[in-house]
Every structure is written in structure tokens, then in C-alpha cells.
Design goal:
Number of helices: 23
Shape: flat
Strand content: 5-15%
Radius of gyration: 28 Å
Strand order of the largest sheet: 6-5-4-10-11
Length: 571
């Protein structure tokens, strides 16, 4: 990409933090008017007081002439902030974007910063609900972005397996006499059915409800070894089944952790700390609470058992000790804002090193995500439906070619998942979103199908010319400027990739990257029409166009992978 050029600028400006990613391309109109590639740095408000000093210092800097032809400083005027324009050496600009690099120049690394992203976090014994989809795919993108940018990244899945409802689950397994063989075949469905059965039975029979409470008490106290052993088995089976859904979504985790790791026995020390500094206060009814923004938030129930907040406080403090993170992101829906406010307030009161390290990444709800018959709210059913719809569309399409080498099931599944993921990720995360099958599965609209189609189209073109060694072709700015403007449009879109990845990470918004990829696909589609390769008789023009389309394919592929998509070569 433009990493070497950005680095050449940064090396002369070590006093300016993160200027590497603050360098951006001007608007398309300005770029075409300039007739030369530009990068600009718009002075942020934080340094506005030093504007004159900074602009003067720029004039005296000696930038590498192999990359930078000229530097122009533009003082602030009215509402327009001051900026510095770097006029780039055109062939160097084209070369860094188009050449086939075996070892691309590295961007600044953030390996000393450790970012932990907690996301997905379903409960065991419940089918993976569509409500967990947004946490799962947003968290995955944020982890991918941080990792791509060089941060040390830990992906953490914190599964719910504790609380009185799990006493009902254990009771249901006993009442239904569930065998290990049944459990292994379909663990989540079996456990879920056991829970539903026990919940219904306990509602009608108070003795069974008490028995469920007793079972959980034994589990929490660790006095029933058989029960504890079976519980560990249930967790193992759950992870195995969840893994198949995560694989379809392009998601993986570095660590699976459990709410039960922070049961009352394990967190007694944390509770003692909270009491000793006066954060945990006892109420007249025996509960223990913390005060957050004048709200009295329960942490310990009157019977002495812990609530979810107590376990979350203990988990956060333990992770900080163990992982030594610089930043911890919790990707959880808007409805949990009060919980995380209480968690962050209480944990930082106990350990002020956590100040400015914690963030609740909120998101809205998805409405209307079910099968076309309106039957399911389980994600597996929705993904299966998406696969079947894609199979139908492909079979009805007049452009679908029969290919015995293509695994139709695999292709339809990837297309269906791409449609669902992109339809969700292209929305601003805090907004509620109404899911539409019609919109998600369009080929011509801004959809996951469009991304896959453009990638396949570029792959097919490049395969037809694989006899041409692109590594031996030197990119030429002159040739690009002699083409229709669509060529430079694609080139400038390619140059925006790094700043879009950075902005997506800074805003914690996947939609920034998604919309960038739509723009790149649209520019590429226009260029494919205006810059034909097969019909072009001039070998030089042909080879320069191939370089351009190869770079477009490479960038679309990188962007899709950051979103968790699996780029197809044929569809």
C-alpha cells in the first residue's frame, strides 16, 4: 500500500504521534485538479495552539525526495483547519499501490499495547440466539482490526454457566434421564430441552423448584463431585457445538472462560477487598450493594450468594493481573449500559490503574431476523436458510455455470453467511436494525454478495492472464493518467485503505470498512467496463490494467477477511 511513503513522512516528524494514520487523501475532486497524488495532514484541534510553530517547522524539513516532491503548508482560515499537503512522486505512489510485493513494508506496530476483546459470550445449554450475532461479528471485526494494525490482541469468549437457572438445567437432565450418548449427539439442543422441561415442572411443583436450588447450591459449593464432573462435560460439549457456528462466521477465540470460574469460593478475596475499603455496603435486608451515580446496585443477595456483577468485578480484576492489558473492550448490547457503568465504577475504585482502559462497545438490536416462514430465532436456522436461498437463486440464475469441481454446498453457505454478516455490519452499531432477506441477498445493491461477486470477477480475469508475470511489470503513472479517469479513481480508492482501517478501529465501527469496500467495488466495476483487458491490443496498456485489477482484488480480499468473510474465487 502507501506504507513506505507514510513512513518516509513520519520519520521526519517523530514528535507527532499517530501521524502515520492521520495522513489522508484529499477528496476526489481535489486529487483530479492537482494532477499529482497528494497526502494531507489536517492539524487536529489538540495542536491548534501550536499551528504557526508546526507549519514553520514543516517548511524546514527535508523529506525523502524519492517519495515526496513538494510540501505546501496552508494556514487555517475561518472554519477551515490548517493543513500540510505532501505532493508525492507519482511513479513511487503508483508502484507502492500496484506492485506485487512479497514482503509489504510494515506499518507502525503497537505490539507493546495489549487489547482484550470480550465478545459473543452466549450461555451454555441454549441454542446460539440471533441476539448474540451482533456481539459475535462486531467483536470479531474489532479484534481483526487491532491485530491487523499490530496490536497484541486477545479474543475472549466469556460463557454463562452459573446462576440458579443452571440448577434447573441439572434437574432437567436428571428428570429426563439424559444419557451421555444423547448429550454427545446434540448437546445444546438436549440441554435446552432439559431446562425447558424442568422449568415447567418446577413451576407446577415447589418441591422440584427447591430441589433445583439445592442442586445449584451443591454445584456452587463443590460438594457433589459427580455433578461437577458432568458440568465440565456439558461445557466441553457446548464449545464443540459452538465451534461449528463460529467457523461458519469466520470467528475464532484465544480463550474460552466461564462465569463459574468466579463463583463465591473463588472471589471471596475480592469481596473482602470491597468491604475493607467501604465500597461494598450492607443493607438492612442483608443484601450488600455498591453505590453508583446515586443508584444502589446489588452485588450480594441476602442469602449470601453472589450476583452477576460480583463475578464480573472479580473476572475483570483477575484478567488485569493475568493479561496486563492496555485496553479491554466489552462488546455487549445497549441494554447492559447500567451494568457496565457499575462494573467500571466499582473496579476502578478498587484499582485506579484501570482508569481509561475499559470500554463498553454498545450495539442495538436486530429485529426481524428469522426464516422466511418466521419460525426461528436461532442463528443456525437463519444461516441454513441463507444457504438454501442462495442455492435457489443460483439454480434460477441464467448466468450460473455448471462446474463439477465446485462444492455447491460450500459456496452457497459462504454466500449466505456473507449476505447475513454484511447486512448487519454495514449498519452503525448503536442503531437498532431491521433485517431484510430481500436487501441482504441482492447482487446489485451494497451487500455481501456484491463483495463476493466482485472478488470472483477479478479472480476470473486474472486467471485468464496468469501467463503474464505481474511481478515483472513496473507500474507507470503516465499510463494510468492516459487512461479514462476510472483508472485513477481505483488507484485513489486503493490508497484510502489504510486510513479507512484505522478510522474503523478508532471509531470501533465495522461499517466504516464495509462502506469503503462498497466504494472500492463500485469503482472497480466501472473500471472493468471502461478498461477492458481481453480486447486491448496494446500490451503495455493491458499489463498496467492487470496490475490495477490485481491490486483491487488483493485489497478487497484483505478487507473481506477483516470482516470475517471467506473470499470466494468462483460462485
Amino acid at each position: 500500500m502507501t506504507s513506505r511513503i507514510r513512513r518516509a513522512i513520519c520519520e521526519q516528524l517523530p514528535q507527532l504521534e499517530n501521524i502515520y494514520y492521520a495522513l489522508e487523501l484529499p477528496a476526489k475532486k481535489e486529487l483530479h485538479a492537482a494532477s499529482r497524488p497528494l497526502l494531507q495532514w489536517i492539524l487536529p484541534a489538540t495542536v491548534a495552539q501550536q499551528e504557526n510553530e508546526l507549519l514553520e517547522s514543516m517548511k524546514s524539513q527535508q523529506f525523502d525526495a524519492a517519495y515526496i516532491e513538494h510540501v505546501r503548508v496552508v494556514p487555517s482560515a475561518g472554519r477551515s483547519a490548517a493543513k500540510v499537503e505532501f505532493q508525492l512522486q507519482p511513479d513511487a505512489f503508483a508502484a507502492h499501490l500496484l506492485q506485487v510485493e512479497s514482503t509489504p513494508s510494515a506499518a507502525p506496530a503497537f505490539a507493546e499495547k495489549h487489547v482484550v476483546v470480550e465478545f459473543s459470550s452466549p450461555n451454555i445449554a441454549k441454542p446460539f440466539h440471533v441476539g448474540h450475532l451482533r456481539s459475535t461479528i462486531i467483536g470479531n471485526v474489532l479484534a481483526n482490526l487491532h491485530q491487523h494494525l499490530g496490536y497484541r490482541t486477545t479474543r475472549l469468549n466469556y460463557l454463562g454457566d452459573w446462576g440458579t437457572q443452571f440448577g434447573l438445567l441439572a434437574l432437567g437432565v436428571q428428570l429426563k434421564n439424559v444419557s451421555d450418548a444423547e448429550m454427545r449427539v446434540a448437546p445444546i439442543e438436549t440441554l435446552y430441552n432439559a431446562y425447558v422441561f424442568a422449568n415447567k415442572a418446577a413451576t407446577a411443583d415447589p418441591d422440584l423448584a427447591q430441589r433445583a436450588r439445592d442442586l445449584f447450591t451443591a454445584l456452587e459449593a463443590g460438594t457433589d463431585e459427580t455433578m461437577t464432573s458432568k458440568w465440565q462435560q456439558y461445557r466441553h460439549y457446548t464449545i464443540d457445538e459452538l465451534a461449528s457456528v463460529y467457523e461458519r462466521l469466520g470467528v475464532h477465540f484465544d480463550s474460552y472462560e466461564w462465569e463459574s470460574q468466579y463463583s463465591q469460593r473463588e472471589i471471596s478475596e475480592v469481596l473482602a477487598q470491597l468491604r475493607s475499603v467501604g465500597i461494598l455496603q450492607r443493607e438492612q435486608d442483608g443484601r450488600e450493594i455498591v453505590v453508583v451515580d446515586q443508584r444502589r446496585v446489588p452485588v450480594i443477595k441476602s442469602d449470601g450468594s453472589t450476583l452477576y456483577l460480583a463475578r464480573d468485578i472479580a473476572a475483570l480484576l483477575e484478567r488485569h493481573r493475568r493479561l496486563q492489558f492496555s485496553r479491554m473492550l466489552y462488546v455487549v448490547d445497549n441494554g447492559q449500559a447500567d451494568h457496565f457503568n457499575a462494573l467500571f465504577h466499582t473496579a476502578t475504585a478498587l484499582d485506579n490503574r484501570l482508569n481509561d482502559k475499559l470500554q463498553h462497545v454498545k450495539f442495538g438490536r436486530i429485529h426481524g431476523m428469522s426464516t422466511r416462514q418466521g419460525n426461528a430465532i436461532f442463528l443456525r436456522d437463519v444461516l441454513n436458510e441463507a444457504r438454501e436461498v442462495m442455492r435457489e437463486k443460483r439454480s434460477l440464475s441464467t448466468t450460473t455455470k455448471v462446474n463439477s469441481c465446485l462444492n455447491d454446498e460450500h459456496v452457497c453457505d459462504i454466500l449466505g453467511v456473507s449476505a447475513v454478516l454484511v447486512n448487519v455490519l454495514k449498519q452503525r452499531r448503536q442503531r437498532d436494525h431491521v433485517f431484510s432477506w430481500e436487501q441482504a441477498l441482492q447482487v446489485n445493491g451494497d451487500t455481501g454478495i456484491k463483495l463476493q461477486y466482485t472478488h470472483c470477477r477479478l479472480h476470473s480475469l486474472l486467471e485468464n492472464f496468469r501467463h503474464i508475470q505481474l511481478e515483472d511489470i513496473k507500474p507507470s503513472w503516465r499510463h494510468l493518467t492516459q487512461e479514462p479517469s476510472d483508472a485513477l479513481d481505483v488507484l485513489y480508492e486503493l490508497a484510502r485503505f489504510e486510513q479507512c482501517v484505522w478510522q474503523s478501529k478508532e471509531q470501533l465501527e465495522a461499517c466504516v470498512l464495509v462502506n469503503y469496500l462498497f466504494g472500492l467495488c463500485n469503482a472497480t466495476s466501472r473500471a472493468l467496463k471502461r478498461l477492458p483487458v481481453k480486447q486491448e491490443r496494446c500490451p503495455e496498456k493491458q499489463s498496467q490494467r492487470l496490475l490495477l485489477f490485481n491490486a483491487a482484488k488483493r485489497t478487497i480480499q484483505r478487507g473481506m477477511q477483516l470482516l470475517g468473510l471467506k473470499p470466494l474465487n468462483q460462485m
